[in-house]
Structures are given as C-alpha cells and as structure tokens.
Amino acid sequence: MKAIVIGATGATGKELVDLLLEDTQVESVTIFARKKLSINHSKLNVIQIDFNKPNEWDTLVKGDVLFCCLGTTLKVAGNKDAQWKVDHDYQLWFAQAAKINKVPCCVLVSALGASSRSSVFYSRMKGELEDAIDKLNFGKFLVFQPPLLLREHTDRTMEIVGAKVIGFFNALGLLKSQQPLATKDLAKAMLFAAEKTPVGNHIFKGQAIRQLLNNN
Predict the structure, then answer these.
(1) DSSP state, 204?
(2) Suppose 114 and one of 25, 127, 181, 208 were both cysteines; which one would form an S-S bond, judging by CB atoms 3.0 to 4.6 Å apart?
C-alpha cells in the first residue's frame, strides 16, 4: 500500500505515520506539510507545500489511500473563516486531487455529531466536508467520527476537563458510547479499516471504532 497523509504533524497524524512506517504492508508514505519534518525513514517522502496553491501540488497526490488528519482549533486559526479553510477547504482540495489521480480510498477524521444541517459551526463544517467528499465517489470512503480524543501532553483545557467529566460518568456505567479514545487507538483503527474494510462508504463512531481495535 502507498499511503498519503495530510495533517501528519497533529496528534492523530503523528501516531498514524509511525504505524504506517512500521507496517510491512505499507510500501511508501508520502506526507504533505507546510514545514520540513525531522522524521527520516526509507519509506518516507515529505513534500513541503503551500496548501493555498493546489495547482503546485495536485498532480503529486498519488497512491492507494489518502489519510486526511488535518485540523485546527478556532483559537489557533484566529477566526471561523481561517478554520474553515484548514478543516474544510484544504482537505477537500486534497480529496479532489486524489480522485482525479485515481486514488481509490479516502480516510477522513471528522467529528462526532458532524452534520451539514447542524446549527453548530464546527459540526456543520465537518458535515459539509463529509458530504463534499462523499460526492466525489471514491471506491472506498471511510469516515471516523471519534469521541473525545486523548492526546499526550495536551494543553487544551476543554479536552482535559471533558475527559475528566466523561471519565466520571463512565465510572458510574454511563455514557459508555462517549468514552474518550486515545489518538494512537484512533490511528490504529484507521489503518486497520483502510487495509481490511470492503469497498463502499463507511462511518465509524465510538463503538464501531473500538470494534475495529478488537479485530486488529
């Protein structure tokens, strides 16, 4: 398998790249990133790009599966328009390029509650992205809508507080479907699904993601 990854510097993306490089079924890993990365590996190819200039990189998006792990926060982006460009536009442009270049599979990290009909900005943004990529008609389109993600050394206050609150309810036997998930486990599930899931469109939420891990 020849893998393509965007968002490789994020928490999930980093874990995924490590797994891809270790996997004997993976022939090569091509990463598109804004900055040079310190990773060195015989299977790794890092392409430094300007995401805002797809005409300079769209012909390079070639392989067997595109993993879309790109994302930012409203705080980091600065405003909703900037966040939309990163979370929606950049990933859609890559998916469009992959489709044109006959990449058969796209794996997208979305969000729980994603819906183009949502009144919540973040959920609507993710839902509209799902719908737009769905219309490209990949042979295999895998959407992951994980619960709260546990990232190592996170400084995101809402994630820390949210994990503690959900953990409290989990201890009482409640909200099991929303049990937080480690980014490494999400990456494992994504790779397993890309390799083993049959063609077609599939959406994986909390319990379905954990089932992939159990089958791994």
Answers:
(1) E
(2) 127
Measured between alpha carbons, how far is 148 from 150 in angstroms, rounded to an integer? 7
Distance CA 81, CA 99 (A): 25
Length of the chain: 216
126 catalytic? Reply is yes
Q: What is the pLDDT of residues 112-130, one digit of tens each?
A: 999 999 999 999 999 999 9
Low-confidence ranges of the chain (pLDDT < 70): 151-178
Active-site option among 14, 126, 184, 188:
126
Tell me which residue of 139, 121, 126, 49 sits closest to 91, measured CA to CA.
126
- Alpha helix locations (H) across 80-137? 80-84, 91-100, 121-134
Q: Say what the alpha-carbon torsion angle 159, 121, 87, 201 is, to the nearest 10 degrees.
A: 100
> Which among 122, 135, 176, 205 is annotated as catalytic?
122
pLDDT in tens, 158-191: 554 444 444 443 544 444 555 789 999 999 999 9
DSSP code for 176: G
**14 included as an active-site residue:** no
| Distance in angstroms (rounded) separating the CA atoms of residues 61 and 164 | 40
Q: CA 9 from chain center: how many Å?
A: 12
Q: pTM of the prediction?
A: 0.88
